[in-house]
Design brief:
- This protein has 309 residues and is α/β, with parallel strands linked by helices.
- The protein has a single domain, classed as NAD(P)-binding Rossmann-like Domain (Rossmann fold), CATH 3.40.50.720.
- The protein contains ten helices and nine strands.
- Helix 1 runs parallel beside helix 2 and helix 4 packs parallel to helix 5.
- The two termini are 17 Å apart.
Length: 309
């Protein structure tokens, strides 16, 4: 399969108002792509759109405000996108939310909220836009899973369940779409410095002091700039990589889980305690890496080969 061509491509990106999504918007525009940017935060999305338009005035940027937790609204938006942008070369399902708390501390409604955004919306948008992707030569699909789609820590039953689901869904589509010429990439970010910790919800049964302590602990572990993560993703898509792991905070736990799938939980608890200096029971937020050496972006913009797996 030839390398992905960003020039004059129409790219649809969810979760585009901040973090990796916003960085992807800038990276795609810099490569010559037109954009359809989705997010529920209208104010932040408008800021991203304004910045992209100012930097790349020849690029078409179409903002779409939608809460992907709403299946009906998501379906309506998908129809609008197909009408306004019948040719789509790239779909990036990046939007995600986190829910802190052990399984017995969250309600089924709280759990379902995570499922709706992290998995159902990915499936729904992919199903709606796949005919357009299949009709566009050289198209590509990117689904952003997580480090927690490789390992499952305590306090993250909902988040990990959805990110493992995204991983399985993406791998199946990769095999199914070979004959259609559509490339498929699963992305597993490690500790990316996004707003997911600030935006995380907590189960109704989680003690307030515990979840505030957990939020502070995990925030210290989010070290990789979103712009760096976006460049790694775009580099991987260009080369049609089936899987992209970002940072040692994803690659090391992936290796440990492969070597000791039944025992990595012990290493995870020890590593997190050493990194945060806090007991494991406090670890209840949703965007944290497992034990790892510090992730530091390189001094130059070049990408080492081991960023891509």
């Amino acid at each position: 399969m030839r390398r992905f061509d960003y020039h004059r491509a129409t790219a649809v990106v969810t979760g585009a108002a901040s973090g990796i999504g916003a960085a992807l918007a800038h990276g795609l525009a810099a490569r010559g792509s037109d954009l359809v940017l989705l997010d529920r935060d209208a104010e932040r999305l408008a800021t991203v759109v304004g910045a992209v338009r100012a930097a790349y005035p020849d690029r078409r940027v179409d903002p779409v405000v939608v809460d992907l937790a709403d299946a009906v609204a998501t379906a309506g938006v998908a129809e609008q996108i197909l009408v306004r942008h019948p040719r789509i070369r790239l779909l990036v399902n990046n939007a995600g939310v986190a829910l802190g708390g052990r399984f017995d501390q969250v309600t089924l409604d709280e759990f379902q909220w995570v499922v709706d955004i992290n998995f159902r919306a990915v499936v729904q948008l992919t199903h709606a836009l796949l005919p357009a992707l299949k009709a566009e030569p050289g198209a590509h699909l990117v689904n952003v899973s997580s480090l927690f789609g490789l390992i499952a820590p305590p306090g993250q039953a909902a988040y990990s369940a959805t990110k493992f689901a995204v991983r399985g869904f993406t791998e199946a589509l990769r095999h199914e779409l070979i004959a259609d010429g559509v490339g498929v990439t699963a992305v597993h970010p490690g500790g990316i410095a996004t707003r997911i910790t600030e935006n995380a919800r907590f189960g109704s049964g989680v003690d307030r002091d515990d979840h505030e302590a957990g939020r502070r602990q995990f925030r210290r572990l989010l070290r990789i700039p979103p712009a760096r993560a976006a460049e790694v993703i775009l580099h991987g898509v260009e080369r049609r990589r089936p899987r992209v792991l970002i940072g040692w905070s994803a690659k090391l736990p992936d290796l440990i889980a492969r070597i000791a799938p039944g025992w990595y939980g012990r290493l995870l608890r020890v590593g997190l305690n050493q990194t945060t200096g806090a007991p494991t029971r406090r670890l209840t937020t949703g965007a944290a890496p497992a034990p790892q050496p510090a992730d530091q972006p390189p001094a130059s913009p070049s990408l080492p080969a081991d960023d891509l797996v």
